[in-house]
Amino acid sequence: MTLDSALLYGSFTLYVGCVFLYLGHALTKKNLLHRSALVLVILAFALQTLCLALRWNTAGYLPVTNLFSTLFFFSWSMAATYVYFELRYRIAATGLFVMLLNLVLLTIAIPRDPTFPPLYPALDTPLFTFHIAFSFLGYAFFSMAFSMGVLYLIQRVRATALLPDLPTLRKLNEEAVFLGFCLFSLCLIIGSYWAYVAWGYYFSWNIKGIWSFLVWLFYGGMCHAKFVRRWQGTGYALLSIVGFGVVLFTYLGIGLLMSSNHPLD
Amino acid sequence: MDKMALMQWYLSEGLRGPELSWWVGLTGVLILLFALNTLCCFIDWIFRFRARWRKSGEYLIHLGFVLLVTGYTWGAFAGQRSEQNALIQGQTMAVPNMPGYFLRLDKFDPQFSPEGRPLDMINELTLLQGDQPVHSATAYTNNPLMYGDLVVIPISMGRSATGFTGSLNELGQISMVPGEIFRVRGMELEILEFLPNVVRRPGGVILPAGPNLANPAFRLRLTADGQSGEFWYLLREGLPQPLIQRGLRLRPANPIAVNHSLLTINRDPGAGLALAGGFAMLAGVIFALGSFYYKRSRGDRPEIV
Is residue B292 included in any domain, yes or no? Predict the structure, then answer.
């Protein structure tokens, strides 16, 4: 087993462990279990970061050119955003949901081919690295918003002490949408400039270009919706869930099922 | 749709299938109305700047969007796109849709990995206005030649036939490429032109039919006994009469091929405005992020209940 595989499986195991600890915390409400889960998340994230750095160093470019590596990078971005929110706001039991989502990504990624395909000459530019990094960090914040939206609805129905209160969940949801929108805007600005120097036009009518623009418009709309009374709270949570569906379609649906200029395999 | 500027596409292709393209027009109108709405928000903010200056980041994003839509609309109406322009080293071509301008490929250097995988294409290009150079650049992947609203991008490369090797009577092995002159038996045979693929129109007119080697032809000039005449030699049709009559056995054997660069040549007068929009949006995002964390650090967040 190579070092990067060992790091990958190591982080996966630790993520599984932290999910169980979060589950134990949800059932027993023991604070020690939550703290232990957080330690495991940070350890798993550290191993995943090492794995990413090793793969980046080996490939000579940010390895995000096939389905395995994009899922892996998406998972890393999600873990990074979760660590950010957890350290900043101590969101406790929300970790169970977010880490489960992260495990789903890694579970889909692990059976796939992790080898590096030869890099197309057009991708050999820092614009590619920044475009992809901001794209997946944006997606990760949108995933976080989705998680907060789902948890908001659960909290509203169940009123459990395990989850943060409704105003906090709403605030975190709004923050995730705002940060995701900012990062996704950077992704589109860089991508448009890159398209201009690589293809001679900055907007492509390819299905990926259209749906990325729709994602941007949707979350731009959400940045405004938080000021509209009827969209606050439940409406905003529902919008976060719908938005994540649009993100998933843009990333996986188009990349795998349709012919686009952003193929995944 | 990316092969043409949007309006050009809509008028030439879109209108041929309105049941499939109606959404493009509708989307265009909706986005323009949306941009107008965004502009109104931005103007409203300008008038209230003293009270709302801390929202500068958000409103710069609004301005960036308006500039981007305006730039795109301008380019959609006035832009031009041209793909698959093949140029071999030393060749000059008229820039499509830019009368009076020419593009010369001074040097073409394709780069390959040891395994033979194409890595890059180094194109030394000169843009000429008439016969005066106005701009030179080394263009390669992700590094186009840019001049005003013109962008020239090396997209790919291929092989072009430029002539043939062959034999001519007692001269033995010769290279039949334009510019070569052969003197044999007191006669002079000059290769004036080579076309890799031609069609013969009614009346005997020869027209070029593309860069692929399919029906190659030479235009020749034969000077003998103080008289000179030009004629075509279509290889598939056999030796032309003037050569047969003079006993000249011109026998092409193998094509001579050289690399050519395939260039995309686009013009987009709105690109500069769109770039300004991109910068406004970038500045807006950075300012909005800074402002967000500054407000959060001060606990300054208006609660909306």
Answer: yes
Residue B142 to residue A197, Cβ atoms within 8 A? yes
Residue of A nearest to B120 (CA): A121
Mark residue B142 as left, alpha or beta (left: phi above 0; alpha: psi -120 to 50; beta: remaining). Answer: left
ipTM: 0.86
Please name the residues between 244 and 263 in chain B that touch chain A, using a CB distance below 8 Å: none
Which pLDDT band, with edges at 50, 70 and 90, does B111 fall under?
A: confident
Dihedral angle over CA of B281, B282, B284, B289, nearest 10: 140
DSSP secondary structure code for residue B215 in this structure: B
Contact A192 B117 (CB under 8 A): no
| Amino acid found at A212 | S
User: What does the domain layout of chain A look like in residue ranges?
Assistant: 1-119, 121-265
- Number of structural domains, chain B? 3
Say if B119 is an interface residue toward chain A (CB within 8 Å): yes
Q: Same domain for B195 and B225?
A: yes
* B78/A contact by beta carbon, under 8 A: no
Give the best residue of A193, A201, A206 to mutate against chain B (max B CB count within 10 A).
A201
**Residue B292 sits in which domain range?**
6-79+270-297
Instruction: Supply φ then ψ for residue B25, to 5 degrees.
Output: -65, -45
- Show the tokens assigned to B97: 């849709």
* Cβ <8 Å between B81 and A200: yes
Under an 8 A CB cutoff, do A121 and B304 touch? no
The predicted model gives B45-53 an average pLDDT of: 86
Q: Do B95 and B125 belong to one domain?
A: yes
- Whether B278 sits inside 8 A of A197 (CB atoms) is no
Question: Is residue B305 in some structural domain?
Answer: no
Q: Tell me which residue of B260, B234, B252, B249 sits closest to B164, measured CA to CA.
A: B252
Residue B302 lies in a domain: no
Closest residue of chain A to B35, computed from CA coordinates: A217
Q: For A235-254, how does the pLDDT look when each residue is reduced to its tens digit (9 = 90+)?
A: 999 999 999 999 988 887 77
Residue A188's nearest CA partner among A149, A214, A225 is A214
pLDDT in tens, B95-106: 998 899 999 999
Residue A263 is predicted with a pLDDT of 65
